[in-house]
Amino acid sequence: MNKFAFVFFLLLVPSFLMAQVPDTTPGSAPPDNAAADPSAASPGQAPAPAAVPAAPAAGRYPPSPNPFFRGNGPGNAGFYFNLFGLILILLAFMFLSWTSYWVNDDSTALQVRSDYWNSMIFGCGIISVLAVLTVPSFMIGFIVMGVLQGVPLGLYVRERNSMVPDSAKVMTKHHIHGWLIRKLALIGINLGGGKVVQAAVGPDLQFIGKQETSGRGDGGRSKQVEASRGYMAAKELVYDALLRRCTDIHLEPKDDELAVRMRIDGVMYPVEPFDRSLGDAVINIFKVLGAMDITEKRKSLDGSFRALCEGREIDFRVATQGTRTGEKMSLRILDQSNSVSTVKDLGFRKQLQESLMEVISQPHGLMLVCGPTGAGKSTTLYASLNALNPFEQNIITIEDPVEYKIGDVTQIEINQKAGQTFGNSLRSVLRQDPDVVMLGEIRDGETANIACQAANTGHMVFSTVHANDSITALYRMIDLGVEPFMLSSSLSAILAQRLARRLCNSCREAYKPKPEFLKKANLPAQKINKFYRVPKDPEETCPSCGGLGYRGRIGVYEFLEMNDRMRDMIREAAGISAIKSEARKNGMLYMKEEGLRLVVRGVTSIDELLRVVK
């Protein structure tokens, strides 16, 4: 459509701008009727009668009663174009072409009635060109052209701004101000000082170094890195990671570059790498922000810093490790706004959620959440604490490190260098009259025994342990040195979990599952017509998931709740198969069975379930 408009413009505009008039330049040959004028006397012929006026001198003509000039003004005869009109029409047509391309790309990416707005912009643009060529008054036609192009563009901007966050809105005061500052900064004109220009040129992100106060702007580590090489690259890297919903950034040195990978929904994806020199500068910037020694590149270091992005505060955990090719760095992103606030948001089925809430509401006991690293164990514990009333109960957490802040809850961070371990901190906390204690992780026998003793002495204890499933977690506690009789009396429930990626609702595709698979999975083939999966042949990149096929994650759970029969079996050191059989009688579903429920509902795919649950 844009090519057709361009050809249309080339055909019509020259016919409008060129004045087809005969050449009457002084000094040129006289018109044909001048040669037939009887008043002109040839050599040797008698002059004409006095009644006929004498002809003017050669090359001179009588003045016209109606002054006329062609071209751009008197004295410019022979130049047939109106420069002013030509420039205005060219600018208007360039604006029409640019807006047409922008509306097409933007509406397609946002799925904002792309066909409708493309037709509207193109149709009004063609009408505006016809108007400026046909209206007798050029200025009136140009005004009509501006209205026909501006009104549909403004209506589209209004509709698309209603569907995007404030930071992505266009033609707003903030957007115009930032655009103006960026353009002027490119030519060396800095309005509003260096900080204003820096904020407008780069993404809306402000680093806050370790031990700095948020929003004070009193200098410090963030001030030290602002003028460093690679500062803008570091800001763009972090901002891009936040837009992609990334949870981890890995900077991995190679021989000639610094590779960058991001973990999105639990899966690693490579992004554009840095040149080695620029990549080393980016690593140094993060080390300065995290209060780490930039001269030490062989030992493993750790630190932390924060950032302000679009009004929210985000925490970063930094860890480095020396490798054969250089220093590797990983950044853990802890975005408070993305944390789960309630148990309902975790994705439990109704019956399982009710059982979990009964355990959480118990006055004393031990609830364990198990799973590998990155399975969402801490998120489940935070949601469980949010289900309690912090004003009626004294809630204390012991974490390494504190990942998310909870209002009206005492949160303690472990400091291994100062000798503050989970065991020592738990002993101290039990003297603070707590009602609920959350342990970030049970790592050793000392912590495990103290946690069980606290559960037996009238405290509700929440903690995590690394184990593959709920039954394995039970025997993991025994392996750590907890006596079976103490474990059986203190343990209330064990929740095993994994995180599976959700299928994107915008681009998922349905397919008919094979009857053999349904039979093997003990699913009724006559009741299941379709499963969902990632599209095999996507026509274009989905704007919702960015072409990944998945967006967000949901928990896959296995809930083992203790009863009197199971407590007796644990006390008697019964085998795993006997405890599993009793748990099944009590209504426990295996993790894979819970995951199949999500597959049947179209929440996730069978391939994703088999990836996270073995």
Specify the CATH homologous superfamily of the largest domain: P-loop containing nucleotide triphosphate hydrolases
Low-confidence spans: 1-46, 213-219
Tell how many strands the DSSP assignment holds.
16
- State the strand order across the main sheet: 1-5-6-7-2-3-4
Oligomeric category: single chain
How many angstroms separate the termini?
A: 53 Å
Mean of the pLDDT scores? Answer: 80
In short:
Helices cover 40% and strands 19% of the residues. It is of the alpha/beta class.
What keyword list fits this structure?
614 residues, alpha/beta, Beta-Lactamase, Rossmann fold, seven-stranded antiparallel β-sheet, seven-stranded mixed β-sheet, 21 helices, 19% strand, globular, disordered N terminus
Written account of the structure:
- The chain has 614 residues and is an alpha/beta fold.
- It folds into 3 domains: 1-18 and 72-164, no CATH class; 203-337, Beta-Lactamase (2-Layer Sandwich); 343-500 and 553-591, P-loop containing nucleotide triphosphate hydrolases (Rossmann fold), CATH 3.40.50.300.
- Helices cover 40% and strands 19% of the residues.
- It is built from 21 helices and 16 strands.
- The chain has helices at residues 2-17, 32-35, 83-110, 114-134, 138-161, 173-186, 193-201, 221-225, 231-243, 276-289, 350-360, 377-386, 422-429, 445-456, 470-479, 484-490, 515-520, 564-571, 576-585, 591-600, 606-612, and strands at 205-208, 246-253, 257-264, 267-275, 301-309, 312-323, 326-335, 365-370, 395-399, 410-413, 436-439, 460-465, 491-503, 509-511, 531-533, 550-561.
